[in-house]
Amino acid sequence: MLPRASIHDRLRSGSPALAAWCGLPEAAIPALLAREAFDMVVIDTQHGAVDFATAVRATALIEAAGKPAMVRIPVGDFAAASRYLDAGMSGVIAPMINTIEDARRFASFMKFPPVGERSWGPHGALALSGLQPGDYFQKGNGLSVSFAMVETREALDIIDDILAVPGIDGIFIGPSDLSIALSGGTDMNPASAMVEEALDHALARARAAGKFAAIYSATGERAADLVRKGFHMVSIASDTALLRAGAQMALKAARA
Ligand code: 3PY
Ligand code: MG
């Protein structure tokens, strides 16, 4: 198989990337979704039930389909970011980045010196990239993307500072948590007018900084709106949601 384009090149290609989102603890699921027309697959270890070994198995299977594997780490678990990069993941999404210090700590585990302090040990990444160790060290920082999640008022207030942190490649909006924050804890509506305004602002700031803007969407229809707005990457639903929607559709047809 020909080596695939780097994730940076894919995100800069001008054609928005659509990501699958997996939280079930079974590597065969992301492996299957990687064979559909998604551009990449995200493993969610914040709200999903996937352990490290399962995510590593999934990484090899997603890469075997010629797609980049990405992960969302649990809140504050920045050391996990380096471990997933070592395993060969191409991108990490860190939730609840609410201070400059959060963004700096995340970037430090994502990038080798001099940008960050990532420790050497990319065993899976060498096998999957086919690069020699010295080459991987030189190119490594450009082979992976670091997405800082913007999903609170605090993050919105300092969005330009987060985007300016060396080693942060972009922002990833969490519209559900953002809706809870912007409503003062009274509502969960990822498509509210307040969220809409906030995500337009965040997208514009990311573009002005020359960095990537990504966002989660619950449905394909909503993903189409977000693609039209100009997000570089939009994730769609989740393995659980797709499974439930498929089951409900089939049952409805059977009972009609
Ligand atoms: C959010 O919408 O808050 C997310 O974190 C998306 O998964
Ligand atoms: Mg969230």
From TrEMBL:
- At the top level, the lineage of the source is Bacteria
An example Gene Ontology molecular-function term: aldehyde-lyase activity
Q: Is Lyase included in the keywords of this UniProt record?
A: yes
One GO cellular component term, please give it: cytoplasm
Which Pfam families does the annotation name?
HpcH_HpaI
User: What UniProt keywords are attached to this protein's entry?
Assistant: Lyase, Metal-binding
Q: Which InterPro entries does UniProt cross-reference here? A: Aldolase/citrate-lyase_domain, HpcH-HpaI_aldolase, Pyrv/PenolPyrv_kinase-like_dom, Pyrv_kinase-like_dom_sf
The keyword Lyase is annotated on this UniProt entry: yes
- Name of this protein: 2,4-dihydroxyhept-2-ene-1,7-dioic acid aldolase
